[in-house]
Amino acid sequence: MVRVLGEVVEATERPAAPPASPTEARVLALLAGGATTARPARETGLTVDGVNHHLRRLSARWSATGRTELVARAYALGVLAPGVWPPAPASTTKSIGPSPEV
User: Fold this and answer.
1) Which of 26, 84, 95, 97 is deepest in the core (most CB within 10 A)?
2) ω before 86 within 30° of 0 (cis)?
3) Gyration radius from the chain CA atoms
4) pLDDT tens sequence across 42-92
């Protein structure tokens, strides 16, 4: 592709895919809390192989090389809620206290 100097290239708008499914987010939250593979399997109704399948898919999608990097990317992408213990998916956390006035 050749681009003329000064030419403005407009980005084609594509709907952004969600960074992780609800099941993947739940698995990541459990891993962030220090769980082994067996615990997310029990709590999500998956097999250990099913949990590993989700982790492999996320690793490929996010170019992550390990579980620690997956958890870090989950926080960076907003999949996991910051400042919450135990870790939880961002979509299921609720604010405590009065909501700020606009």
Assistant:
1) 26
2) yes
3) 18
4) 999 999 999 999 999 999 999 999 999 999 999 999 999 999 999 999 975
Domain-by-domain residue ranges, the chain? 22-90
* Highest CATH level, class, for 22-90: mainly alpha
Q: Both tokens of residue 39?
A: 């615990």
Q: How far is CA 28 from the centre of its chain?
A: 7
Among 15, 38, 84, CA closest to 74? 84
Token digits of residue 37: 């593979």
- Of 13, 14, 30, 16, whose CA–CA distance to 74 is shortest? 30
Is the sign of the CA dihedral 22, 23, 24, 30 positive or negative? positive
| Confidence band for 95, pLDDT divided at 50, 70 and 90 | very low
76 or 5: which carries more pLDDT confidence?
76
